[in-house]
């Protein structure tokens, strides 16, 4: 066994997990029975663990357990008690920050400094939504008929959540916390490539008092678990975070079962720099926007739109800054960029760069990179049309396409020229222009002289190929509940009409 595999086992043991990923069904760790799946360390390339895909029968049991536990969650716990349990969950996660961060860094290849921040964000999410558990109220509607009409916000029941590999524990907390605060049961299927921190999160939550079976984890491949859980009668909604291609398949399956979906999909976000911007700030912001997390972020600023008068100067600044970024072992505190998270993505990013080079791009990249691991060095593609494949496709790697523009109208037109609508940014010292551009660019989140600022209290989501529905903030509470309208006839003599009461 390699040192890294031994470390994997030790970290799993510390978190009360088995030596390989297992599903959690009704509070029990359960081995899969299907095809074998290998977890590969993207830095050392050694095998960390091998485990079996969970079968449809396990997914069905998980949905049954969530349905039963959800009744207890809303029947036996007051809203305030649900909030208290969630506060305890937050503290339990916080106490294990270092172990969770190490496990995430090892398996996902994400720098440990980023993993610590993401675990802290999960703690914040549980605390934020714990506070909402006893504040979910409906409205009194002033209907003209003399009735008292009010609404309740009811839990959906069981929600099925599917998450990707690029920010595993962050995404799990992001979706589990609002779902249970609203009184739902959950079945969550993390990516088969990075399931362990989600399993650990749920294990810790159960130890902290979350009723067993309220949140169940399916460790395995998408199609197996997906087909069973989406069709299960207890599941009332599907929340998918991942690529547009899979999102479309999930939405089709949910549509066939007449179930609503939230889709948090990919992006190709425009980061627009005007010639009146503070270029030092814009250059640093542009690097952070695309190179952090090795570009494996849905909101990555992967299209850098630069005013033509400062285009080559800004590209030079970004290219020379690439040499100051520390690439290395994700477990090393100094590492700013780790490897690409898995072999399939590594090959895809390499192929996109090769394709852009063949298509005439000037490729600016740093000369050195670590010897082992799926490393793609920070890369700028210059000299391509904004309609080129590399400028339109989500590469999901540390690769930015630099595109010149002549004026504000052209910048907006280019920014809106993809099928995505997730995020974007503008760098300018003209406050009027900052707001005009923010409003004109199609995006669910937009930053002015900043990039990647997010918070659990602020809504997040996209349109078109970036999906629909919203996560975070009070919008997530709306997604995880549905309104019920209740009518009471308050007249001395009830108005019982043959037909509608007016
Ligand atoms: P992916 O679509 O390949 O996989 C996402 C999840 O879907 C995984 O858990 C996978 O096992 C599962 N899956 C695959 N086939 C399925 C099926 N038939 N039925 C049900 N589930 C199935 O995405 P990925 O490669 O893991 O992640 C990268 C993508 O995620 C990028 O496009 C990125 O932009 C997107 N993403 C979006 C957000 C957001 O909030 N908008 C956040 C993070 C990542």
UniProtKB/TrEMBL annotation:
PROSITE patterns: ALDEHYDE_DEHYDR_CYS, ALDEHYDE_DEHYDR_GLU
Superkingdom of source: Bacteria
GO molecular function per UniProt: oxidoreductase activity, acting on the aldehyde or oxo group of donors, NAD or NADP as acceptor
Domain named Aldehyde dehydrogenase: residues: 37-486
Cited InterPro entries: Ald_DH/histidinol_DH (IPR016161), Ald_DH_C (IPR016163), Ald_DH_CS_CYS (IPR016160), Ald_DH_CS_GLU (IPR029510), Ald_DH_N (IPR016162), Aldehyde_DH_dom (IPR015590)
Keywords from the UniProt entry: Oxidation, Oxidoreductase
Database matches in Pfam families: Aldedh
Active site positions, chain numbering: 264
Transmembrane segments: none
Family membership: Belongs to the aldehyde dehydrogenase family.
Designated name of the protein: Aldehyde dehydrogenase
Provenance organism: Oceaniradius stylonematis
């Amino acid at each position: 066994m390699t040192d890294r595999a031994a470390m994997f086992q030790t970290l799993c043991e510390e978190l009360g997990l088995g030596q390989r990923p297992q599903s959690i069904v009704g509070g029990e760790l359960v081995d899969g029975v299907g095809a074998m799946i290998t977890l590969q360390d993207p830095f050392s390339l050694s095998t960390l663990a091998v485990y079996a895909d969970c079968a449809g029968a396990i997914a069905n049991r998980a949905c049954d357990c969530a349905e039963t536990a959800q009744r207890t969650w809303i029947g036996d716990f007051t809203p305030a008690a649900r909030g208290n349990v969630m506060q305890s969950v937050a503290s339990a996660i916080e106490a294990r920050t270092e172990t969770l961060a190490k496990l995430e860094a090892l398996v996902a290849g994400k720098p440990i400094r980023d993993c610590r921040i993401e675990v802290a964000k999960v703690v914040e999410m549980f605390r934020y939504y714990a506070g909402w558990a006893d504040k979910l109220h409906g409205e009194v509607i002033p209907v003209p008929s003399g009735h008292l009409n009010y609404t309740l916000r009811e839990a959906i029941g069981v929600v099925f959540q599917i998450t990707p590999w690029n920010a595993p524990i962050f995404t799990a907390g992001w979706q589990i916390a609002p779902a249970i605060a609203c009184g739902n049961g959950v079945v969550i299927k993390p990516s088969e490539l990075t399931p362990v921190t989600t399993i650990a999160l749920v294990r810790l939550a159960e130890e902290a008092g979350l009723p067993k079976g309220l949140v169940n984890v399916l460790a395995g491949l998408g199609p197996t678990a997906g087909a069973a859980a989406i069709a299960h009668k207890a599941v009332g909604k599907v929340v998918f975070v991942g690529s547009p291609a899979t999102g479309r398949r999930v939405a089709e399956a949910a549509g066939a079962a007449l179930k609503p979906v939230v889709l948090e999909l990919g992006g190709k976000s425009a980061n627009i720099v005007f010639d009146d911007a503070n270029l030092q700030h814009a250059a640093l912001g542009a690097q952070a926007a695309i190179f952090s997390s090795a570009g494996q972020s849905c909101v990555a600023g992967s299209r850098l739109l630069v005013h033509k008068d400062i285009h080559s100067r800004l590209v030079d600044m970004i290219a020379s800054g690439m040499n100051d970024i520390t690439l290395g072992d994700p477990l090393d505190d100094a590492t700013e960029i780790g490897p690409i998270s898995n072999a399939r993505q590594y090959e895809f990013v390499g192929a996109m760069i090769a394709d852009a080079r063949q298509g005439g791009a000037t490729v600016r990249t740093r000369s050195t990179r670590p010897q082992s691991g799926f490393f793609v060095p920070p890369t700028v593609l210059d000299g391509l049309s904004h309609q080129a494949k590399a400028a339109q496709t989500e590469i999901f790697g540390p690769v930015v396409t630099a595109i010149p523009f002549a004026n504000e109208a052209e910048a907006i037109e280019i920014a809106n020229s993809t099928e995505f609508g997730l995020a974007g940014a503008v760098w300018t010292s003209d406050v009027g222009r900052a707001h005009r551009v923010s409003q004109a660019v199609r995006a669910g989140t937009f930053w002015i002289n900043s990039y990647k600022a997010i918070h659990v209290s602020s809504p997040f989501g996209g349109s078109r190929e970036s999906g629909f529905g919203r996560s975070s903030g009070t919008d997530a509470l709306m997604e995880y509940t549905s309104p019920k309208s209740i009518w009471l006839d308050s007249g001395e003599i009830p108005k019982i009409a043959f037909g509608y009461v007016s």
